[in-house]
Each structure stands twice: as structure tokens, then as C-alpha cells.
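G., the chain you wanted modeled:
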Amino acid sequence: MLRKLLYSAFGVIGSREVRAFEQESHTVASSQSRRLLDIISANCETVYGKEHSFASIKSVSDFQKSVPINVYDSIQPYIERAAKGEANVLTADPPFMFATTSGTTGARKLIPINRAYVKEFRRASVVSGYTLLKNFPGVARGVSLSVFSPAEENRTSGGIPCGAITGRLYLEEPPLIRKYISPIPYDVFMIDDYESRYYTLLRCALVLPISSLYTLNPSTIVLIGKRLQKYAAPLIKDIERGTYSPPGPVAPAIKSKLSKLFTANSARARELSALSAAGLFTPDKVWPTLALISCWTRAAAAFYLKDFPQFYGSVPVCDITYGASEGRGTVCVGPDQQALAIRSHFFEFVLEDEIDAPNATALTAEQLEVGKNYYILFTTSAGLFRYNLHDIVKVVGWYNNTPLLEFQHKGGNISSFTGEKVTESQVTAAASATIAVTGAKVRFFTVVPEFRPEPHYELWVEFEETDGLDAAKLIERISAEFDRQMGEKNVEYQTKRDSQRLSPAAGKILPAGSYDELRRNLVSQGVPDAQIKVSHLNPKAEVRQYLESQLTECPARF
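Predicted structure as C-alpha cells:
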């Protein structure tokens, strides 16, 4: 069978990259130095390279002296020039697309992607894929169900596509891989209506021998299980008849194209009907070949794992490794073991407590210590040099001489259930706009992320006065407006709301005087009065505990 041959071929290719990684993992300092100098030498003649004396850089120390630590704002002017089509700005190898990701101010960031970067990214993917196949051989008995976003959502003023790197990487796969290993049609992910998108995904997948689920967000894995049960009857009917009946709108061209793929399969429909009648219409039962789920399992994402057994039984779950559009941070070297992706990019690290110091020391991989948390800095072939993603990782061990890492959380006050990356500035802007629109007189507010009953954000409000005020009615209006404003301030928040991975914002009322009493309590505990600052997003545990005890009884959801 061709699928078996493709898996075998990948095993051969993968073993070569694994051997190279294994060898370099013993000599991480020299390996990382070579990686850096390769990136620098390739971009000496760029605008950024000339401004930062790339031609004179001969060592890691030279690099650190010549190039400042960057965040998106500091490198954005160069990205904007490249987005307009100007050549040789950040990299000699021009970007062929820009990955879009949510920024701290709500506007989308544009992350340059070029061919050299894709090659770097794929090195880590090959090592991780090989390791997963070795540890979960059942994956080779079927096909992968991957979930991604469109590779092109719009274009820059220079005509360069902008979209999701996950979609672009899928399109970069060889046609045989897309046909026999990842056969869910790309058109599925071009469907705008989320209910129809998941229905179509399941309509395709239910007639395939799915052996692995591969997607970043575990909330998506849960959503697949829920939608499978919600649409059991129409899905089975469509499979029996060879029809396609999505619950919502689908662009005619896409619907016509997909409809041609479906044929009647009465035998499969009988199998599924029997499972449904027995109350066993769950992913682990409809896909008995399912051997692995790969997704985020760390930090806030771990919450969703509690719901997996309900839908997936005892199917093994393995972390998808740490990475982002900006770069690939780790590779899988064994179940629950992620080593720094030393053959992909050049990395530096700053101790978590030192990131804001004027002369923070940037360490290289071999200088790290087990048990400590660090901000991770990426230098990639796509033009992100000493780039601080504001991600914090923890060193949990060593693979030969290469650090094993675990993602901990975003640096700063950022909340993210499913990738929305809500920041305090966004919350403040949204709440301020809400107060202006509703005319409410608010003394104090804070926003708290809540996991149950579904992930959502709660806005806790203390009104300046309550006499003659229909507080319950006003908080209902405030909740709806705040939810709308958050969607405007953060595009990813709206995306997650549209896909139902985030539920609507909720409102709760704090009694009059709560803030003043809180201040008094903090002062009594030794906090200087002048230094009291209660966060507008996810306040510290002791503050949250106090405020929660003061909440008045009112509907939590609207």
C-alpha cells in the first residue's frame, strides 16, 4: 500500500535528521554558534544587517553587542517595509508570506516567512514526527486529522499573502502526503461558518481510518468530540446517502467541490448507526484506529485535558512541542520530553526576574540551569533577531548537553485560554469603551478568566452608586457591550468567540465600598498605600480571593 511506503520513506528521511540532531545535541555551544553565524552571514547586506554591522560579527558575543533585544514594536518598521515589497530589508531571502498573529495592542502582527525559515521549521518537525512514529507505531496504520487555518486571509500593500503558517505548511507538503497521509481537503478550512466547518471536517473524517489527531489547541480536540455527538444523526444520514448537508452556509464553489468527493457508504453508515444506538458515538469508538492525540498540553491548555477521557477514552496524548509562528522552540525527543530545537534557530535566554533590568544578561543554551525560568529569545532566518516573544520556559532537564524545556506562560499580564492572548491594555480599553457607551458610573473593575462551565471572562464591577439603579439589568448590558468591545480590541478573541471556544463574557457586581475595603486590607498586610495597584486583568490570588468573597448574587451568564 502506498501509504505504508510513504511512512517508510519518512522513517528513512527522519532517521537522518534525528542522527544529525543527536550528534549536535552533544556539542550544543558550537552547534548554536554555527547556526547563528550562518543566519548572520546570509543577511550581511540587508538594511538591518548593515545597520547592525553583521559583516563584523564573528561570535555570539559580537552578535549580542551589535544587536539589541527586540520586541515586535522595535522590528515592526522593517517588517512594514518588507510588507510593502521592498527587498533586502531584514533578509536577503524575501518573505513569500506573512503569518498573522495577535499583538499586545490588539492589532495583528505580521511575522515574515521565507523559504529559509520553512527549512528551519521543518527540521524540528521531522525530528518530532519521527519520534512520535517510533513511540506510537499505530499512527502508521491510518491517516492524520489535522486542523489548521487558511494560508491566505488577505495581502499586504505589496501583494504578499498574509495568513496562518499552519495552512501554509500544509500546502507545502508534497501532493502524495496530502492525499494519503493528511487527506482532509484544504477547502474544509476555507469554510467561514464554524458549525459548517466542523460538520464538514467530520463528514470527511468519518469515512477515513483516522490514526492521529494533530492540532495545537486542545479545546479544538474537545470541540471535535462535542460536534461529533451533536451532528451524529445527519452525519450518518449523509454517509449512507453520499450527500453533504452542512448546518450553515458554505460558499457555493466550495460546497460544489466538496460534494463531488462524497459517495454513498451504507456499510459505514450501519457501523456508525450501531455505535450511536449503543451510546458509543465517541471519537475513540468511531475511529478504532486512533492511536495518538498531539496538541498543547502545558500551562493553561492543560485544563482541556480533563475533558478528553469523556470523548477519547484512553487514547494517548502527547504534547505537540513548543513553538509559534515566530519560530519552533523545541523538538520531541520522547514522550513528555522536549529538547531545544538547536538545528532550527539560534536561541538566547534571560532569567525571568531579570528581563526588565537595564543590562539583562542573555545566556546561551549550555549556560542554563535546571529548575529555572527564562524568557526565550529567537534569532531566525526570517529576520527576527534576538526576538523576545514574551514566552517563559522552564529548564526541566538535559538531553545529552541540550536543555529540555517546558513552556510555562506568557510574560507579563496576559491571559489566553485558546490563543486569544488577552492583555491588560486590551481589557482596560474595552472596559473604558464599555463604560462610555453604557453611561455606567463605575468605581472599580477587574476581569477574571474563568474555566467553568465553559472558558470565558468575567467582568467584576463596583458601581459608584446603587440607589435607584437596576443593577442586574445594567450589568447585563455592560456584559454584552464588554464582550463586543473585546472582539474589537483583540481579533483573536473574536475568532475564538465565533468558534465557540470562548463563551460570552459574564458580569458580576461588587458591593459599594469593595475597593476601599480592599485597599485597607492590603495596607493592614504591610503593602505601602502609594504602591497599591490592583490589576484590571487576572489580579493576584489574594486580591481575587478577597473580591470573590464580596461578589453579590446576580446572574453569572447572559
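The chain has a mean pLDDT of 90.

Shout if anything looks off.
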